[in-house]
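Case study: Glycine transporter domain-containing protein.
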Amino acid sequence: MPFDITAVVNLMGLSAVAVFAISGALDAARHRMDILGFMLIGTVTGIGGGTLRDLLLGNLPVFWIREPIWISVCLIASAATYFIAPKLVSLSKALLWMDAVGLALFAVVGTEVALNFDTTPLIAVCMGVMTASFGGIARDVLCSSNLTLMNEELYITTALAGSVVYLSLNSLELPHSYDLIGGFCVAFLLRALAIRFNIKLPNPYKKA
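Here is what the predicted structure looks like once written out:
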């Protein structure tokens, strides 16, 4: 059976949207929002990065308007989280790990989409990073949370690493599954290590 890369990328994209929507909904839970708040924050988190990517690439109308399944996944995942969140022992830990998975998936998917538009490698990497990070930024702003991206947290660096690894493997003309798996694993493992061992980037402006 031939390897259907389009189907795999779409599956990864839907998974990323669902996971990021859950991370947004978990942040809504921390702020004790109602179910509509869950769905709003979850949806903005899930589709935010991809929307920015499509706008910058001129890929209009954006993906979730062309194919409403994307926004449907966000709404369903967010609403489901509303009922599951009270049963979680630690909302903060669940949010961190959901965010890590979504970040890694979106870094790869965003880069792949940009390459399909025949962008240069630099632009493809930028699109991967933006796709991976913008939804989280929107979530933090709407929830008045500390902006993970704007401090020494090892966050955007992991998306950058995953995107670069994906692009590097892609240039070697290996089976396409290697590109996707390699990029995802690097981004997720780096973020996981940062979470587990509290690894941060050096900040020369932070007072001791």
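For the exam, be able to explain this: Residues 5-197 form one domain.
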